Amino acid sequence: MFYRPQDGHGLPHNPFNAIVTPRPIGWISSRDGTGRNNLAPYSFFNATAYVPPQVMFTSTTAKDDQGDTKDSVANIRETGVFCVNVVEYAMRDAMNASSATLPKDVDEFTHAGLTALECDTIDCARVGGAPAALECKLTQVLTLEGQSNYMVLGEVTGVHIRDDCLKDGRLDVTTYQPLSRLGYRDYVRVQDVFELARPDD
Q1: Per-residue pLDDT tens for 126-144?
Q2: CA nearest 40: which of 62, 55, 25, 53?
Q3: How is the chain split into domains, by residue range?
Q4: Which of 28, 83, 141, 158 could cysteine-pair with 121, CB 3.0–4.6 Å?
Q5: Distance CA 95, CA 167 (A)
Q6: How many CB atoms lie under 10 A from the CB of residue 84?
Q7: Torsion of CA 43, 48, 51, 52, to 10 degrees
Q8: Contact at 8 Å (CB) between 78 and 32?
Q9: Is the pLDDT of residue 201 over 90?
Q10: 122: exposed, middle or buried (C-beta count within 10 Å: 0-12, 13-18, 19+)?
Q11: Is the pLDDT of residue 194 over 90?
Q12: pTM, to two decimals
């Protein structure tokens, strides 16, 4: 089949998210100016550069109590920092619970039964027990085409790695099986890993 997005796809569900898969999940923790914590998963997320290390995520909807965006973007605009927590398969239910649309004064760490730990380089909470967490300072918020589409870019200022996830000096993703987003309501976990040497290696 072929379709132009502006004309519609004619299918029961939008296939776009199912085509661009798997997508890593950025479990974004933030804090507003009054000290209230927030935690939410975003599947429009990725690393963008090595030196300095940088990441991005995109928020694509808005909440009535935050105007043109959601809690994460509103908090980051206010404080200039955020943390990206890696979602392991064992934390899938907590991640899902934190995706609920809740009032801005509700702490998703508490709602999802998670422990909030303080970051080292920024004034923000991180998910206790997560396999890894990236502490970030905001570099840009870009307004994208469409309603309430904002891309948040940040520079990584601190990196946490759970000790049991390191094997022979390398991060072994099979120890925690990172969760990735597919289309519709589907997810996948990384269990099998293989290597390919580049032609120039």
Answers
A1: 999 999 999 999 999 999 9
A2: 25
A3: 26-188
A4: 158
A5: 26
A6: 26
A7: -60
A8: yes
A9: no
A10: buried
A11: yes
A12: 0.96
Average pLDDT, the chain: 97
Sign of the Cα torsion 166, 172, 175, 177 reads positive
- Cα end-to-end span (Å), the chain: 39
How many angstroms separate the CA atoms of 16 and 127, rounded? 30
Query: From CA 109, how far away is CA 177, in angstroms rounded?
Result: 21
DSSP string, the chain: ----GGG---SSS--HHHHS--EE-EEEEEE-TTS-EEEEEESSEEEEETTTTEEEEEE----GGGTTS-HHHHHHHHHSEEEEEEPBGGGHHHHHHTTS---TTS-HHHHTT--EEE-SSSS-EEETT-SEEEEEEEEEEEEPSSTT-EEEEEEEEEEEE-GGGEETTEE-GGGT-BEEE-STT-EEE---------TT-
The dihedral built from the CA positions of residue 177, 178, 182 and 184, taken in this order, carries a sign that is: positive
Sign of CA dihedral 59, 71, 42, 93: negative
Q: Report the CATH number of the 26-188 domain.
A: 2.30.110.10
Greatest alpha-carbon span in the chain: 53
Query: Which residues are registered as beta bridge partners of 2?
Result: none
Structure tokens at 171: 């991060």
Residue with tokens 């995109």: 58
